[in-house]
Amino acid sequence: MAQLKINGRACDPENKFCRSISMAARSGRLLEILDDLELRVESMREAAISIEQEKESLLELIQSVQSSQEMRNISDGEREELNLTANRLLDRTLTVNISLEIIRSPQQEEFLGKATALIDEIANQILKDLSSAKDRLMAMHNACTSEALPGPVDQKFQAIMIGCALEDQKKLKRRLETLIRNVSNADKSIRLLDQQKEKPTINSHPL
């Protein structure tokens, strides 16, 4: 399309649109700045998520040390000293607070509430029926992945998860993984205690 150049301006006579070349250059530079800032914003959010995940992992590890079988096999004095250290680490970890707001639609808020309620329901039943709770948690976890995993898939939970925001889906999946690990550790502890009870007692008789 033919254009007229008047005093350094590129003009379109048909659309009657005229913009200075310097204005276009400034607009391009501003767009580049905003693109760069968008990358930094996403990088900041990813760093915040990483710190949040590290906090969850540290809390879980500290608590697993406190409830481990090794803790039961040491003297009371040593256990008390180690628990003091573990509690100090827990307190310091809890001082780190990451606030990452997730933008959700009203529908996503509703689905998040439903998914959280279902997980809470099973978490409250763990002590009552460990085996059943683990099976349900595994079926719900299988609903959170596209991979073909062994075991059943909770179709109802899967439909709810699809309606959640992507970041909420990741957080809910991490929570399920934490609960599954806790249930597995509790199951191992119970088995160890059962095995210790089954061991025969050897009575020593003086000669």
Per CATH, the class of the largest domain reads: Mainly Alpha
Q: Any idea of the CATH topology of the largest domain?
A: Methane Monooxygenase Hydroxylase, Chain G, domain 1
Regions with little confidence, pLDDT below 50 for 5+ residues = 1-10
Mean pLDDT: 82
From the N-terminal CA to the C-terminal CA, the straight-line distance is 115 Å
The largest pleated sheet is described as: 3 strands, antiparallel
Strand order of the largest sheet: 1-2-3
The total beta strand count reads 3
Beta content comes to 5-15%
Total helices: the number is 7
Q: Tell me the number of structural domains.
A: 2
Structural class, please? mainly alpha
Alpha carbon gyration radius? 29 Å
CATH architecture of the largest domain: Up-down Bundle
Oligomer: single chain
Q: What do you see in this structure?
A:
The chain has helices spanning 21-66, 69-72, 76-94, 106-125, 130-142, 155-162, 166-198, and strands at 4-6, 9-12, 17-20. A hairpin with a 2-residue loop joins strand 1 and strand 2 (9-12). The relative contact order is 0.08. The longest helix has 46 residues, at 21-66. Helix 1 (21-66) runs antiparallel to helix 3, helix 4 (106-125) packs parallel to helix 7 and helix 5 runs antiparallel to helix 7 (166-198). The radius of gyration is 29 Å and the shape is flat. The protein is mainly α. It folds into 2 domains: 27-95; 106-196, Methane Monooxygenase Hydroxylase, Chain G, domain 1. InterPro entries: BAG2 (IPR037689), BAG_domain (IPR003103). Residues 114-191 form the BAG domain. Residues 34-61 form a coiled coil. This is BCL2 associated athanogene 2.
